[in-house]
Amino acid sequence: MPANLPPEYHRIEAELREARTPEEKIDIYERLIRVIPHHKGTDKLIAMYRQKIAKAREEGERQASTAKRVPGHKVEKSGAGQVVLAGPPNAGKSSLVRALTGVEVEVADYPFTTRSPAPFMMPFENVKVQLVDTPPVTAELMETWFPEMVKMADAVLLVADLGDPDAAATLDGVIKRLRERKVELVKGDTDVPPPWSPFRKRTLLAANKIDVGGAAKAFDDLGVLLEGPFERLAVSAVSGRGLESLRRAVFGLLRVVRVYSKIPGKKAEKDSPFALRTGSTVMDMAKAVHKDFAEKLQYARVWNASGLDGLRVNRDYVLADEDVVELHI
């Protein structure tokens, strides 16, 4: 017997793409069960959602348990995305954060200046990216809460100290320590689709202190000796060398597109774009604007640098970076 699912089912099912927490998923699963016609043809579908509810509840309990074990170390996401810095003592993470954000950060010449996670906003063109400075990590030492923070982040900025003659081995110890805690750092262009691979984190390697003696050789050694095919950028938090390229690369890690909202008859608002995941559709943007737009959306018009000039598109149209979108309800 065919399921004959109503339009309401497909509308609710589409919301799963935006669900982030177990609670949000449970709410959607329960609503789906309510709108599914109950007959022999839908028994398996309903059973599947009931299993998903049970798994989501287990996940919620695990997260609650973790939160109790590591109080005060969760950083609420902000901006276009969250990038956690990771690296050994005195690699210059805090100096790099200060240089990238322009905000005063406690910096000292002795290790372990940073004792707890600290969020800062890095401007990039017309958006901001959240950088989270963290205590140092080594092969022997890592805060118990740190792996969970990395798992929740959108990406990782791995910081190497080019003044350390053993920089590659030191950083390799950090990578392996995280791997022991089920966190795999992967190349920035790796496809990591949530929620199936939540603990594979796209990573960029910032090789800091490029202006110290022997740094050029140390930078080359990182590419040869370090386990992990990360993109490497040579930078200096002191001189500012390579920082603009680093900002752009960090933004690229997030896999987001900036989309501008346009009101009919007016110019687009380009000062405050919506930051959406790459692959997002017109419907996804409508949801980001307001739930009423998503419910009442009929079509949209799109302008972009590729030549679209107010082209009428449907809800499933995939948006590109810097598209201008006019929603019609």
From the structure above, extract its key features.
single chain; alpha/beta; Ubiquitin-like (UB roll); 7-stranded mixed β-sheet; globular
Morphology: globular
Question: In the residues, how many domains can be counted?
Answer: 3
The portion of residues forming beta strands comes to 15-25%
Biggest pleated sheet: 7 strands, mixed
Series of H and E elements: HHHEHEEHEHEEHEHEEHHEEE
- Which CATH-level-2 architecture of the largest domain? 3-Layer(aba) Sandwich
What's the total count of β strands? Answer: 12
Span of the ends, CA to CA? 36 Å
Output the CATH homologous superfamily of the largest domain.
P-loop containing nucleotide triphosphate hydrolases
Rg, rounded, reads 23 Å
CATH topology-level name of the largest domain? Rossmann fold
State the oligomer: single chain
Write the layout of secondary structure elements.
Blueprint: H1 7-14, H2 22-35, H3 43-69, E1 82-86, H4 93-101, E2 118-124, E3 127-133, H5 146-152, E4 155-161, H6 167-180, E5 184-187, E6 200-208, H7 215-225, E7 231-234, H8 243-253, E8 256-261, E9 274-277, H9 282-289, H10 291-296, E10 299-303, E11 309-313, E12 323-328
Helix pairs in contact: 1-2, 2-3
